[in-house]
Every structure is written in C-alpha cells, then in structure tokens.
C-alpha cells in the first residue's frame, strides 16, 4: 500500500544560544499531544524522515503533529563551541527552544511528548530532569543504554584527542547501527545516508564515559512517564534483560515506565522493516500519556 508523505514545514526557533532548526508536519488534530523528536549522534533531524520509514508521515496519518529538531550544533541549528557541547548544555538550549515551539504551536493541545534516539535519548532524559515549564507529558527513549561493549569503548577512546567531528565510514555504520540483513532493507540504509552528519568527539566520549556514570542520578529526577526500547541487535550497547531492567528501574520517580527489547532490529530502529509498527507504538504511548495524566 502506498502512503502519501505528509506536508513538511521548516522550523526555526530562536534561543539565547542562537537558532534551533528542524522540520515538522504542520497543524493536525489539536486533541493530540505535540510530538518533538530528537535525533542521535551522527545524524541531523532527517533521521526521523527517511522515505518509507518516516515518523513524521506515520504521525501525521495518525493525527499527531510531529516536529523533528536539529540538536544544538547539528544540521541547521547553532550551538556552543565543541568543548561546551555537553548533554546538559544541549538540554538547556532545547528546553528554551521547545518552550518557544510550544508558545507558537501549542494551541489547545494537552502537552508535549518527546521522542528520542541514541544520544538524543540521553539528552531527552536531561531535558525531562530539568522539569521544564512547558507541559511535558512523557518521554520515549530508544537507542541508549547504560553499558557499551568494550570494543566500542576502546574504539571511541582510540580517536586522537582534539580530533574534529567524526563521520563513520559506511561499512562501519552499517555494522554498528543496523541489524542483520533480514531485519532491514538495504534501500532504507542507503536512503538514510542523506541524514548523516559528523558527530562531535565530545558527544562520543560523553555517551560512553559520562552518561553511564551519571544516568541514574539524571533518571531519578524524571517525573513523567517513560517508554524505553532497546533493539535486539544494537551494536553500541550491551543488550540483555538485566541491562534493560536496570536502565528502566533508574527512573524511580516516574509515575510509570514501560521497557522492552525490540526483536528484529538494530540501533537505528527507525529505519528497519518494523519501523512503522514501532512508530505507532510510540504514538500510542503519547496518547496514553494524555489518557493517564
């Protein structure tokens, strides 16, 4: 079945740190929450808009307005200098940007649900822990964990200090970020390349060093519902039921948490064959946040 792509509108928000850019689907039903999507490392906001695997298209078809933002220092967004591009700093900038977005687009909506991937999920947890003034209803996290395999840690530490932003070679990106051949179409992997962007070394090191050390403290300050998914074939995180449970339990102040290992997918879960089913599950979580608030 062919699905028509939703209309796109450019997003430009002003903050004290400069511009935050992105793309959105435009106004749809106002009884659903506004969905804000934060991409991971090595991509810009187009990660969520790969043809045939677009969260924006699925959201619009289901009656949700979806806005995918370029995180600070990525894509069309301004950002602090590389040494200041911490997850906490990015969360502070995005707090201001999403507040501006809410002032523009909130209308009569019940609130905002943040959907995030990989490093974007670590930043989403920081953002929720800030307890923003705009109405955050819940966060949906995937592509993040609490422990990376030793070979990933060693590889990231092996990059020379002071190196500029890193772009993984296509074969390495395929091996680390996507599951086995039966889980993903190579056409989708190819189509996603237009959303690839260099990854600052500071973020690479924070996700393997700083985040595992401090994520429990951050998670404990999150007081909204949490939807957490770890892909079976994620090449960047240790994946098992013990790690899943430990990560979910860290959100000790959340009113409720759902957590599962998604079978048949890799780190870039949004581009795999089951992406539409996964996106619908995220939107169902957003609707449940409204129903149970």
Question: What attributes characterize this protein structure?
Answer:
alpha/beta, 9 helices, 293 residues, Rossmann fold
Number of domains: 1
From the coordinates shown, what is the CATH architecture?
A: 3-Layer(aba) Sandwich
Proportion of beta-strand residues: 15-25%
Structural class: alpha/beta
Superfamily at the CATH H level?
Alpha/Beta hydrolase fold, catalytic domain
Mean pLDDT: 95
Main sheet properties: 8 strands, mixed
CATH topology: Rossmann fold
Radius of gyration: 17 Å
**What is the strand arrangement across the widest sheet?**
1-2-4-3-5-6-7-8
Question: How far apart lie the N and C ends?
Answer: 35 Å
Pfam families: Hydrolase_4
GO molecular function: hydrolase activity
Organism: Pseudonocardia yuanmonensis
Keywords: Hydrolase
Q: How does this model look, in words?
A:
The chain has helices at 55-61, 87-105, 119-129, 150-157, 170-177, 186-191, 201-220, 241-249, 275-292; strands spanning 9-15, 18-24, 34-38, 66-69, 112-117, 136-142, 226-233, 257-266. 36% of the residues lie in helices and 18% in strands. The chain has an 8-stranded mixed beta sheet, with helices on both faces. It has 293 residues and is an alpha/beta fold. The protein has one domain (9-292): Alpha/Beta hydrolase fold, catalytic domain (Rossmann fold), CATH 3.40.50. The protein is built from 9 helices and 8 strands.
